[in-house]
Write a structure and sequence with these properties.
The structure is a single chain. The chain contains seven helices and no strands. It has 176 residues and is mainly alpha-helical. The chain has one domain. The longest helix has 38 residues. It starts with 12 loop residues before the first helix and ends with a helix.
């Protein structure tokens, strides 16, 4: 029988996590890799369904961001630890999204924004999905963090696409 060490409330969390507790179990590694495969498929469907591939070179470059991020995260799944998500900077992406949406919808009133508005709504859906809290065990928490990461990656990239599309649309209307 192994003896468990008693911890005091003054000890820092990163000092009381044992090395074996810091490892991700193999089942979770497969789940995390599946998350990024599903995220890449969803992203490709979004690109096709909203014809995002029919834009300029800047948007084309943005379209590769989620695929690169998902591929790297898939590849580095073995390097992830349970304590890693707490080390990652976390911003309030919903606030950022609403700020950008407000600017876009009120900035220039004389252009058609129907296709841009659909992308804005889709962005807000992904931002909101990334903010939903799931209470789970410590071992499964990293899976939830990776789902959030996938949603946030898609949402941030959609925000970049929306801003560039809107900028291009405004420039077309102002000069022609």
């Amino acid at each position: 029988m192994t003896e468990r060490r008693k911890y005091t409330h003054e000890e820092a969390l990163h000092k009381i996590i044992d090395d074996d507790e810091n490892e991700i179990i193999d089942r979770n590694k497969l789940l995390i890799q599946s998350i990024y495969i599903i995220g890449a498929v969803i992203w490709i469907i979004i690109i096709y369904f909203f014809s995002l591939y029919m834009n300029n070179i800047v948007i084309w470059l943005f379209l590769f961001i989620p695929l690169i991020v998902f591929g790297l995260n898939y590849y580095w799944t073995d390097e992830q630890t349970i304590e890693l998500p707490s080390l990652v900077f976390n911003a309030d992406f919903l606030s950022i999204g609403f700020l950008i949406v407000t600017i876009i919808l009120n900035w220039y009133k004389e252009i058609s924004k129907k296709d841009i508005f659909i992308l804005v709504v889709l962005t807000l859906i992904f931002l909101s999905l990334g903010l939903i809290d799931f209470w789970t065990s410590k071992e499964n928490f990293i899976v939830i963090q990776n789902v959030r990461s996938a949603f946030e990656t898609i949402a941030i990239t959609l925000l970049l696409v929306v801003v560039v599309k809107y900028y291009n649309r405004v420039n077309e209307e102002m000069f022609f």
